[in-house]
């Protein structure tokens, strides 16, 4: 790919970009291609005459044409394929189309449809995107990073495919997730697409059906474990860090037996975080704070029950505890006692301590064993119920009605993705509580009207957090990503929910605000990094302008022959 002379912050086409490539090479480079949009001057300068149709089409007309095609597709998966094909042909147009139709298209390139795409990844595969680090290649990782043509990588999103959304172990099929997350980085926070790298770490898969699938694209071996697994991760982290020392590495959709360990092992050595733990913690706290503006209560007053006690649950629980402590000065243990977690064996209690994974222990309650959610709701009388179990329909009518019996405005967050794994739907939550639920879900649900009132379910998804945090840490070249950065991000997001939004029950800003939200989060994260001496650059006078100037705009920049 051509390395541009300009930096990653090209804005609305003022400077001409020197391009060395010619003819079809330009057209076949998705970062340079303009499709039918090359002006005459560029057709002459870059040897494009005759290689594209005669009329030069403006980008807005190209967007219109693309949307006609998107809407003509027969299924969501076809829409995904159409958009990914556009991604691979013309990145500027892909991002322009998405940015101008965020509410319609984010559910296609991200949850829920990306889940379908991952499930069938080998069957729908068309063209390479990102990098695959297979355990069989571990001794070559150092040279493999040299195969990637870009020097200025700012964000790497990596998965080992072991817990893809709530769909379980999808092995190498998991690549759809880093691709989707990085599209969100570009859309949400304006990272330049050139500076992003999706990665699939192929450690094998325990998904037998996939191993037997003739079109599966990963290694057909059981997952590596223990020391063998750790050595491959170490080789990967070292190789990436050596090639791109300033890059942020986001761990995504690792099963919880790896997620916590890897985060602890690397968070002080390299610039990295775990989105499912930390990003999810922040976005959920923000939504609860919005809900409490409606009920007029404090965070410390809440009794929170989690269905699910994995990575997301622990990340959210820790962030709520941090919020309670900051709000009221309550002690760590006292705050933890406001939180009850359930796993597949029932309530997590001290009696089970000997058999509990490390991450569940701090939230083990001194309680008699309670086997199911309804019993827990009856006993604990929660005000907040969070679903992070990947068990669809597990917020049953009986459970929700039981909660509403003691709680006038139950805060109900079924967060499992994709939609097919949600613990309940928006319509169910509103119906079973006569419209009183303060609801948000991990994947989007459409608005509904009840007794003449419009109710707009908000989306409690870490996409509101990670792009802004990521932009913040790479912009100021932070030396590490801290929990406080996520806490500040949560507070910033919560502060951006308007009264008009709350009036229709929406606990998060509309997705069309994502750039504004991410810019504000990035500024807040930078402020913190400068205040805590973690930033690697001198503080710009105007931090807000500094962040906004870094944000990629999907417009065609003029080219000149290099
Ligand atoms: N909305 C978001 O932003 C967001 C972020 C992260 C994760 N998630 C979703 O949350 C879900 C869980 O993610 P995770 O990373 O915590 O996974 P995880 O595997 O770490 O945790 C899942 C937990 O659910 C528990 N569980 C399984 N079956 C259960 C049952 N029948 N009853 C009670 N608990 C049960 C497991 O014991 C485990 O503790 C996934 O569906 C994921 O898509 C959503
Ligand atoms: O990917 C998402 O939509 C959110 C989250 O990271 C998840 O794993 O479900
Ligand atoms: Mg995830």
Features:
16 strands, binds nicotinamide-adenine-dinucleotide, five-stranded parallel β-sheet, binds magnesium ion, seven-stranded mixed β-sheet, Rossmann fold, 11% strand, 4 domains, binds (2S)-2-hydroxybutanedioic acid, alpha/beta, 562 residues, 24 helices, Hemocyanin, N-terminal domain, disordered N terminus
Please indicate the count of domains: 4
CATH class of the largest domain: Alpha Beta
CATH architecture of the largest domain: 3-Layer(aba) Sandwich
Overall geometric form? globular
Structural class: alpha/beta
How many β-strand runs?
16
Estimate the strand proportion.
5-15%
Determine Rg (CA atoms, Å): 24 Å
- Portion of residues within helices: 40-55%
Query: What fold name stands as the CATH topology of the largest domain?
Result: Rossmann fold
User: Roughly what is the average pLDDT, rounded to an integer?
Assistant: 96
Q: What's the CATH superfamily of the largest domain, by name? A: Malic enzyme, N-terminal domain
Small-molecule binders: nicotinamide-adenine-dinucleotide, (2S)-2-hydroxybutanedioic acid, magnesium ion
Number of helices: 24
Low-confidence stretches: 1-13
Main sheet makeup? 7 strands, mixed
Pfam family, one: malic
Keywords: Metal-binding, Oxidoreductase
Binding site for a divalent metal cation: 252-253, 276
Domain Malic enzyme NAD-binding: 277-530
């Amino acid at each position: 790919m051509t390395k541009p002379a300009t930096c990653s912050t090209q804005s609305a086409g003022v400077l001409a970009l020197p391009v060395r490539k010619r003819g079809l090479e330009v057209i076949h480079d998705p970062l340079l291609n303009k499709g039918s949009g090359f002006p005459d001057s560029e057709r002459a300068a870059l040897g494009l005459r005759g290689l594209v149709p005669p009329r030069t089409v403006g980008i807005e007309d190209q967007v219109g044409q693309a949307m006609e095609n998107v809407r003509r597709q027969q299924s969501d998966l076809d829409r995904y394929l159409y958009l990914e094909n556009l991604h691979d042909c013309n990145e500027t147009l892909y991002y322009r189309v998405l940015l101008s139709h965020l509410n319609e298209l984010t559910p296609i390139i991200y949850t829920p449809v990306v889940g379908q795409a991952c499930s069938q990844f080998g069957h729908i595969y068309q063209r390479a995107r990102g990098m695959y680090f297979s355990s069989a290649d571990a001794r070559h990782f150092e040279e493999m990073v040299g195969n990637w043509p870009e020097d200025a990588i700012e964000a790497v999103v990596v998965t080992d495919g072991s817990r893809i959304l709530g769909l379980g172990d999808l092995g190498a099929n998991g690549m759809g997730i880093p691709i989707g997350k990085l599209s969100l980085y570009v859309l949400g926070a304006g990272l330049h697409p050139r500076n992003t790298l999706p990665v699939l770490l192929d450690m094998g898969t325990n998904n037998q059906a996939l191993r037997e699938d003739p079109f599966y694209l990963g290694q057909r071996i059981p997952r590596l474990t223990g020391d063998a697994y750790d050595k491959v991760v170490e080789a990967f982290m070292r190789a990436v860090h050596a090639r791109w020392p300033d890059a942020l590495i986001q761990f995504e959709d690792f099963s919880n037996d790896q997620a916590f360990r890897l985060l602890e092992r690397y968070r002080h050595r390299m610039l990295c975080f775990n989105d499912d733990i930390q990003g999810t913690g922040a976005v959920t706290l923000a939504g609860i704070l919005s809900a409490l503006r409606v009920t007029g209560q404090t965070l410390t007053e809440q009794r929170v029950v989690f269905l699910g006690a994995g990575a997301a649950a622990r990340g959210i629980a820790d962030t709520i505890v941090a919020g309670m402590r900051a709000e009221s000065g309550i002690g760590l243990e006292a705050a933890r006692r406001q939180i009850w977690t359930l796993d597949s064996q029932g309530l997590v209690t001290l009696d089970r301590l000997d058999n509990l994974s490390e991450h569940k222990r701090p939230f083990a309650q001194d309680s008699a064993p309670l086997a199911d959610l309804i019993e827990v709701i009856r006993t604990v009388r929660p005000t907040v119920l969070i679903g992070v179990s990947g068990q669809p329909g597990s917020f049953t009518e009986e459970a929700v009605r039981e909660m509403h019996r003691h709680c006038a405005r139950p805060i109900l967050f079924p967060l499992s993705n994709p939609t097919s794994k949600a613990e309940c739907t928006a319509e169910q939550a509103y119906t079973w509580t006569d419209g009183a639920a303060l609801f948000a879900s991990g994947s989007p649900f459409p608005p509904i009207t009840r007794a003449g009132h419009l109710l707009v379910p908000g989306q409690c998804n870490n996409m509101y957090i990670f792009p802004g945090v990521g932009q913040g840490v790479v912009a100021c070249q932070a030396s590490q990503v801290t929990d406080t950065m996520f806490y500040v991000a949560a507070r910033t997001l919560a502060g951006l929910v308007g009264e008009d939004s709350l009036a229709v029950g929406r606990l998060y800003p509309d997705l069309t605000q994502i750039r504004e939200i991410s810019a504000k989060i990035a500024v807040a994260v930078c402020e913190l990094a400068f205040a805590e001496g973690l930033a690697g650059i001198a503080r710009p006078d105007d931090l807000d302008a500094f962040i906004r100037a870094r944000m990629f705009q999907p417009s065609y920049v003029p080219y000149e022959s290099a």
